[in-house]
Amino acid sequence: MLDKEYLSLILKTNFMFAFKKISSFSSLSLFPSLTITRGSLIPNTLFSKRQAEFLNSDSQFTQSLSTLLLQKHIGLVAHFYMDAEIQGVISKLPSTQRLISDSLLMGQGAVDQAKKGVKHIIVLGVDFMSENVRALLDKNGFPDVSVYRLANRKIGCSLAESAEKLAYKAYLLKGMQVNPESLHVIYINTSLQIKGKSNQIMPTITCTSSNVVRTVLQAFSQNNKLDIWFGPDTYMGENLSKLFNQMSRLSDQELQKIHPDYNQEKLQKLLTKFHYFNDGICVVHHFFDNKLVSNLRKHFYDDTFITAHLEVPGDMFSLAYEKQLKNQGVVGSTSDILNFILKKTEDFSLKTHKKIKIVLGTESGMISMIVTEVQKILTKFNSMLEVEIIFPVSDEAISQNNKGDLMPGLNQNEGCSIHGGCATCPFMKMNNLESLMDVCEMINDKLSEGKLGKFIIRNRAESEEDKRILEQGVEPIVEMQFFQKNGKLSEKFLEHIKSNSKNYNKKI
Questions:
Q1: Interatomic CA distance for residues 97 and 91, integer angstroms
Q2: 32 band by pLDDT with thresholds 50, 70 and 90
Q3: Of 452, 449, 443, residue with least CA distance to 151
Q4: Do residues 375 and 36 touch, judged by C-beta distance below 8 A?
Q5: Do residues 410 and 397 lie in contact, with contact meaning Cβ atoms separated by under 8 Å?
Q6: Residues 6+ apart with CB under 8 A from 63
Q7: Which terminus of the chain faces fewer neighbouring Cβ atoms within 10 Å, N or C?
């Protein structure tokens, strides 16, 4: 989430738009929602009813899983986007046995578990997350801790695969031709191999949706000769460009409150030096198109908080950003969205409000952690507040009944499923409880070694070149960790950028 002081400053740039208030369309709900109270969950459609059922999971099953994890020294790291069916179970495990987080913290969470004696890590996510976990365990001295995924075939990611295209390599090669003294800022949601191959072309640092703005500003602050090439997420790149352009309307004094090294001259130079890849999307966040945004503006703008991931298309970004400027929304990472919802829950728990409504502008799996943490706050304050989480539905999954009422679902059927309608990732849904139990039971079972091999993440190089790629793929993550800890790029990395430029000039 962007700095609050920055938001109050940028509000002066008149970025907001005026919208006509529209009365409620009907007594029926346009989108599915799940209302969270201190002791219950209130669904309004079949989709949200299933979410509620999953989150009230079988405690006996959870206990059986916990016992198995303990006996075999297994730890779990899961992404926020896991389906509610699986999160409902693992969220009730002891915190020492599992971590549910964004992709950045999953790797560090695995290392922390290894330090406490865990011998096996199961990753509930997509393959690049498993690869990053494997690499960070190796880097931190835990090569003997095994890593498993929950499918015996590839668990892909549309965004990560965007960086595997020849077009992405061409994008970086062109960047080096434009300016050999360049920096590649790669989104963490990419494979280790792509990070390594990119690093061989252009010095690379990994970023997340929560630290990308700070990464770009700080990098250019430390070396204003840089051209900065961001990728592969096109929507995030567009949104970053919009943010930097909005900053250009601020005075030097206001800019220096955002970053002490910036003035208008330096910012204007950054605007000419920031580039982004134009052919990479996440299929989940691509779902938040202009038709969906139109429905949100008409029916939810005035009395609803709106959240959006930084990966969403521009219209959704603008909508949530407008609300953010009024402290009625947020644009950021999954962690930023969660923190915003929890902050609003806490604020309104102390007031007389009976209900708040929040649009969830990211993958619907986030609801699991939202429910858990919101109910903790409501219980803490003994609050009667109701928190309604609204799941947007694509325009194609909305129909009208014979009275003209808008309803979620084609022909009055459910409008959300893993096949479309709501924002759900089909790759994340390849993780399921059956696979989780199967892998747990096969670990340390000699009779299952052959079957278990298909689930193991090795990251082992078959050649010296492969080894170099994997080693170089870890470097951008390590550099990001340095930046997170110290607030700046390391001198070693800055020197690497300069030496890479000199070597490139010698080649040509």
A1: 10
A2: confident
A3: 452
A4: yes
A5: yes
A6: none
A7: C
Domain boundaries of the chain, sorted by first residue: 4-54+283-426, 73-157+429-455, 159-280+462-507
**Do β-strands 74-79 and 98-101 pair in parallel, antiparallel, or remain unpaired?**
parallel
C-alpha–C-alpha distance, residues 172 and 249, integer Å: 30
Distance from the first to the final alpha carbon of the chain: 42
Q: Domain 4-54+283-426: state its class.
A: alpha beta
**What tokens appear for 490 in the block?**
């390391």
CB 401 within 8 A of CB 428: no
Average model confidence (pLDDT) for the chain?
86
Q: What is the pLDDT of residues 46-58, one digit of tens each?
A: 778 878 888 876 6
Q: Is the peptide bond before 232 cis (omega within 30 degrees of 0)?
A: yes
Whole-number Å distance between alpha carbons of 223 and 497: 10
**Amino acid letter, 401:** N
Residues β-bridged to residue 309: 332
pLDDT at 318 over 70: yes
Residue 16 has pLDDT above 80, yes or no: no
Cα separation, 367 vs 360, in Å, equals 8
Q: What is the DSSP letter of 456?
A: B
Task: Write out pLDDT tens, residues 174-213.
Answer: 999 999 999 999 999 899 899 999 999 999 999 998 899 9
CB 422 within 8 A of CB 292: no
Three-state SS at 41: strand
Per-residue pLDDT at 411: 43
Six-digit token string for 9: 């400053």
Partner residues linked to 98 by β-bridges: 76
| pTM, two decimal places | 0.83
**β-strand pairing of 406-408 with 398-400:** antiparallel
The pLDDT value given to residue 459: 66
Alpha helices in 158-251, H assignment, sequence order: 158-162, 166-178, 192-201, 212-222, 234-247
Indicate if 159-280+462-507 has the same CATH topology as 73-157+429-455. Answer: yes
Q: Is 73-157+429-455 in CATH node 3.60.15.10?
A: no
Q: How far is it, in rounded angstroms, from Cα 191 to Cα 456?
A: 16
Region of residue 243 (left: phi > 0; alpha: psi -120 to 50; beta: else): alpha
d(CA 476, CA 382): 45
102-155 tens-digit pLDDT: 887 899 999 999 999 999 999 999 998 998 899 899 989 999 999 999 998 888
**Which of the following CATH numbers is that of domain 159-280+462-507: 1.10.287.1260, 3.10.450.350, 3.40.50.1980, 3.40.50.10800?**
3.40.50.10800
